[in-house]
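To: structure desk
From: M.T.
Subject: fold request, one chain
Message: Could you run this one when you get a chance? Sequence is below, nothing fancy, just the single chain.
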Amino acid sequence: MARPQAPVGASKQPLPSEDQRKRLERLRDRLESAIEGASDRDLAALAARYQSVLAELAALPVVEESNGIDDLSAARRRRRATATGS
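Reply: Done. Structure tokens follow.
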């Protein structure tokens, strides 16, 4: 079943991958700060976790953001191209 389109100007619900990306980015930032002030004893564990967070971020799909106006404009271009091509 297809997800219904949000009306133009309405805020869209974030995709689960967007929420995951935001959580991972916050964790990455906290780990960067923690690594800077880490003792030698904690550095290896923090660095390992930091590397795994970077790998998880890289594995997430790229989400292109657009607004309703861009969506309408793209749909109009597709319709015109189809109409002239027929």
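Reply (cont.): The chain has one domain: 16-85. Let me know if you need anything else for the meeting.
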